[in-house]
Amino acid sequence: MAAPPSNREGRPKLEDVDCLDWTCDGDRLVVAHRNCNMALWNVNRCMQERQWTGDTWTWADPHPIDSHVIAAVTFNGLVKVLDTRAPTGRDGLLFSAEFSKNPGPTEPKGLEKLLNVTWHPDGRFLAVYGRAGTIQILDPRMVVSSSASGREGHQPVGSFAFSQQINAAANTEVYSILWDNYSEGGPHSLWAATTGAPSKILLYDDDLLLKGSQCPPDAVKPSEVLIGHQSTTFTLSRSGDGRFMASGGGDSLVDIWSVADLTCIRTFASSTHVPIQSVSLSHDGSLVAYTSLPSTGGNDVIDRNLVIAGTMTGVEYVDVAEKFTGKNSRIPHPVNHLAWSPKEHALAYSMTASSGGSTEPSPNSLVNVMKIDADNKTLQDCPIDF
Questions:
Q1: Which of 66, 266, 330, 341 is the 20 to 30 Å CA partner of 290?
Q2: What confidence category does residue 165 fall into, taking pLDDT thresholds of 50, 70 and 90?
Q3: What is the side-by-side strand order in the sheet with 367-372?
Q4: Where residue 25 falls among pLDDT bands split at 50, 70, 90?
Q5: d(CA 186, CA 175)
Q6: For 167-171, 251-255, 321-325, which range has the lowest pLDDT when averaged over its residues?
Q7: Of 236, 139, 133, which Cα lies nearest the Cα of 190?
Q8: Over the stretch 55-99, which tens digit does the pLDDT of each residue have?
Q9: CA-to-CA distance for 336 and 349, rounded, in angstroms?
Q10: Chain centroid to CA 72: how far?
Q11: Who contacts 117 (Cβ-Cβ below 8 Å, separation ≥6)?
């Protein structure tokens, strides 16, 4: 990976990253910033290919099969599916739905402020959830005309094959949703991580979810209920080979789950004793990376902010600050989001713009890609200069 230009003169102030993820071909990163920008970055060429502005993006999920399609949600209740190949000046809108506070008779209800979106593994359906505590399954195959999509403030015209509300659990808030990618027979399941003490991970099978109007909302019950963590389960990740799911919780633990038999096969503990903020499993399931929330404990917290370990061995291959440099100079700021490449051992990570407990100046780049060789030892960093 070539290093991009480092000159940042005249550029706007860096804003924290809300999410990042790879396109399915492993060539590009989708990064959403708190300054209402979402960018598509070509990692191999170290160049930004396009940018979407004007919306407060809370989450983005690239299509699992088509590397040119991205689903994204906004805090004010919009779901958008975008084609990244659209000509300059057009946002490439393929599908749009609005979950407004006062929906009309044909508009989906119950989400209002959207927080997360995830594609079904076959790329046909989307699951979205929001503050109202419901999850809805959408069919985004209705295409919006190019003339309509180019208009500012265009009202959504997408029609749904179904719009299914799922009551996650009484008095429970969902923090993260993700479909598993297990392919050894049987349906896929949508995993929903919740609040609680202990928190639960609820699994909903496709057999019910994808029936749409044939299955009333009150008939949608979890097929399995896993005890996730001693407090809220904040984040979920799946391995590209479908074998594992990982969960990170407020109890400072990362659990590795076998999707085949739904058992927790290994647990990692954060030494900072603060909640896990982000967790990611590699494409082959052999490595897990996780990061915890920053705290007021000083530089020692930052030194242990990012850990990479063997999923099955439990061995920490890379404790970035301590084992590579012996100090916090490599990653001087807290890491808040992680994503492994779907093709290789390359980890994208974002740092917070503020210095936190570090005495180092603000980073020149908030997003970097760390490449690990076959021995899990040699590290190469490619800063991504937004």
A1: 66
A2: low
A3: 335-340, 346-351, 367-372, 379-384
A4: very high
A5: 26
A6: 321-325
A7: 236
A8: 788 899 999 999 999 999 887 788 899 999 988 767 888 888 776
A9: 7
A10: 11
A11: 59, 60, 61, 71, 72, 73, 79, 126, 127, 128
If we measure between CA atoms, which residue out of 20, 14, 11 comes closest to residue 337? 20
At position 139, the amino acid (one-letter code) is D
The full set of domains in the chain, from first to last, is 1-16+232-386 (2.130.10.10), 55-227 (2.130.10.10)
Tokens 């930052």 correspond to 302
Q: Which residues contact 72 (CB under 8 A, 6 or more apart)?
A: 32, 38, 52, 55, 57, 59, 60, 61, 79, 80, 82, 117
Q: Where are the alpha helices (DSSP H) in 158-250?
A: 206-209
Among 24, 64, 17, CA closest to 39: 17
Higher-scoring residue by pLDDT: 139, 184? 139
Cβ proximity of 308 and 289 under 8 Å:
yes
Q: Which two tokens stand for residue 300?
A: 């020692």
**Contact status, residue 59 vs residue 19, Cβ threshold 8 Å:** yes
- pLDDT for residue 197: 87
- The alpha helices in the chain, defined as continuous H runs, are 146-149, 206-209, 299-303
